[in-house]
Amino acid sequence: MSVKAVLSCCLMFIVLKYIIVDVDGGPARRPKKKKITSYPHVYYKDQLPRFRGGKPSYYKRIPHTYFETVYDTKNKLPVYSAYMLYKWKKEYGRVDGWKTDPQLLKEEQPKTTDFKDIAGQQLNGGHLYPQFYNSREENKIETNFVTNIALQYKNFNQNTWLRLENALYKVANTMCNFRRAKRQFITGVVPSKTKFSKKGLNIPESFWTAVCCDTSQALARGKQADGWSFVYIIKNQKPDVKSRNVEMYFVDDFVKQPFSPFVTLFGNIEGVRSCLFNENRVVDVVKRVIELNGRRDRFYLKGKLNTLYENSLKQKQKKT
């Protein structure tokens, strides 16, 4: 065989190695994969949430530069996105334009065109990892992958959900601002069994965010045990209202709810359960979130968090 023929065969082998046959018969590029180990600090103490009965095989981990999504490829819906809040100066404004995720096959995720007609159903595409939490252009672009997007009713997206994102952003920057403290978040959805867009996309029943202020490595004296964590959840309802019910929980109470598929969100590490270093500090944080909201929504504290909150109000009344 001639040298030219050998080179031709080798080239053909290399091409075939990186091309797979698409379901429609045409060529489709194999999705690019990133090493999971290159994102060790997205989760509290590098511990992923644990699912009851284990993580389903069709849930795929998708790491990006500054966040990670666990995606339900069967129902084409994000389960959650995990991310951190960094102390970056604002460098870039909003970036528009949905993008399919190169780490999944196209049949495992929605098409960008599936989001085109959602306004007719009073829907918006809601970011799980909020774009405005990130100040760099290349990272903002990554938040627009369809794997980080779930459908929210317009008035919910632009009012209650946005107010809570803003309030949490401010609280994390002011009440977890110790040097070397970490502000870590997980935002997820409760899927609907009956509500879908015209293109068949699931319209989640609820959206929730868990936040962890990890102060275990804080340099300020006496602040290592000043961390806190909690969860809020809000129903994604269609009614044309601008205020909604917001339920708040300690993380351990939240994961026990029937709608939660989790055993843990932040793990139990070094004697600290679910990133809850200081229960009383959580009460102060929750009070501040409610103040920043301007009481435009209705807050319902649940379980032990409610008990501590009520006790703090009684103590305040006694002092006055």
Report on the architecture of this protein.
The structure is a single chain. This protein has 320 residues and is α+β, with helices and mostly antiparallel strands. Helices cover 25% and strands 25% of the residues. It is built from 6 helices and 16 strands. The chain has helices at 3-17, 137-143, 154-175, 251-254, 279-293, 303-319; strands at residues 19-21, 27-29, 50-51, 59-63, 67-72, 77-84, 123-127, 149-153, 182-190, 206-214, 228-235, 245-249, 262-264, 268-269, 272-273, 298-301. The chain has an 8-stranded mixed sheet with strand order 4-5-6-9-10-11-12-16. Strands 1-2 form a two-stranded antiparallel ribbon. A two-stranded antiparallel ribbon has the order 3-13. The radius of gyration is 22 Å and the shape is globular. It starts with a helix and ends with a helix. Residues 9-30 have low confidence and may be disordered.
Summarize this entry quickly.
This protein has six helices and 16 strands. It is an alpha+beta fold and 320 residues long. A hairpin with a 3-residue loop joins β4 and β5.
